[in-house]
Amino acid sequence: MTPRSTPPDASDPAPALDGRTPTDPALDAPRTTVDALVQLSFLVQGMLARVATAHDLSLVQVRLLGILRDRRPGMLELARHLDLDKSSMTGLVARAEKRGLVRREPSPHDGRAVLVALTPEGRTLIDRCAAEMDARVAELTSPLSAGQHTQLRTLSATLLRPHAG
Amino acid sequence: MTPRSTPPDASDPAPALDGRTPTDPALDAPRTTVDALVQLSFLVQGMLARVATAHDLSLVQVRLLGILRDRRPGMLELARHLDLDKSSMTGLVARAEKRGLVRREPSPHDGRAVLVALTPEGRTLIDRCAAEMDARVAELTSPLSAGQHTQLRTLSATLLRPHAG
DNA sequence: AGAAGTAGTACGCGACACAAACTAAATCGG
DNA sequence: CCGATTTAGTTTGTGTCGCGTACTACTTCT
To answer: Beta strand pairing status for A114-118 and A102-106?
Structure first.
């Protein structure tokens, strides 16, 4: 009864990659680990997106402000963090700037570069938004026992570790 | 050494809600369960999005085609599944139709309704795409032991159950 | 038959993302 | 020091996406 060393279900034919919640009345638990991860990611992202739009922000803008909480990067570094083209940053930052959430300042060391920083209004907004997101997701995990919390953190760490960078 | 009964970290002040992978060299494991879930969701969604764009599809289009794999819903039902406004469906389906991935047919029972179905080309594409997504995410979970696979499925089921519907 | 509800579309708007072309500043090789 | 190259960022144009509003056509209720 040794656990087999191959993942038990990676070749299942029809994973639920559409992000919908199955409507089957009885057995709607994910049948494969892949399904579990995909469905979970859609659930979490949906929550985050809902909170973001409640604050009149897109998810990308939340990520932008979130990065700026402890950094003052240039446009290119921002683009790398957000996995966007540099040309996409211009509009993104411009819109945030027009709303007074963000400030552009010239780099002291590089005449080409622009540093992006949170304004006090931006900080207030992202803090409020992050707190609410935290609350929502915390509520999601509330049915878990303390041991399950630990399990989930451990599993996530294992999955995230090879992708740090 | 009994595990405490309160969730250990739900009130941590600064969760990494920006979806970036921490760049700290040493300790980059998520410190809270919420962080773990959020980071994981961004990682998975990023993978799915990359595969989708590799097939010249958006994530929403993949979800659309995914739903149609085993259904032939009307526009309104599609909108409900995708959490979109019904007016957003028109364009979405129209673009997919223009690419020959999807077919609109009148409902036999309701003169107003339109049923949306996959074309053979659409089925080929979504199958290929889903298989690749499955492979990517399966690769992500490959460092997990068989027991950890089960753990993750169980945890996900617990988290997803209250949100089925 | 007439009133009310429902399914879908049309249109206008803005956000978002990319690619390609461009400007300006830094850096490199000689 | 000077020209060539690289780098940071913007501009412009195109297309997707999503919403709200208004509209049409068909059903359903009474």
So the answer is: antiparallel
Sorting pLDDT into bands at 50, 70 and 90, what band is B84? very high
- Give B134 CA → D9 C1' in Å: 38
Q: What is the CATH number of the domain that holds B71?
A: 1.10.10.10
3 state SS of B74: strand
Residue B91, nucleotide of least CA–C1' distance: D17
| pTM (predicted TM-score) | 0.85
Residue B9, pLDDT > 50, answer: no
Asked if residue A62 belongs to a domain, the reply is yes
Examine the pLDDT at B86 and tell me if it is beyond 50: yes
Q: Kindly list the averaged pLDDT for each block of 10 residues, start to end, along chain A of length 165.
A: 40 51 52 91 94 95 96 96 96 96 95 96 96 94 93 94 82
Evaluate if the CB of B92 falls below 7 Å from strand D: yes
φ, ψ at A114 (rounded to 5°): -125, 130
Report the distance separating Cα A19 and Cα A40, nearest Å.
Answer: 9
pLDDT attached to residue A3? 41
Q: How far is A29 from chain B (nearest CA, A)?
A: 5
Beta bridge partners of A67: none
Q: Which amino acid is at A138?
A: A
- A90 falls within a domain: yes
Does the residue B160 lie in any domain? no
Is B42 a domain residue? no
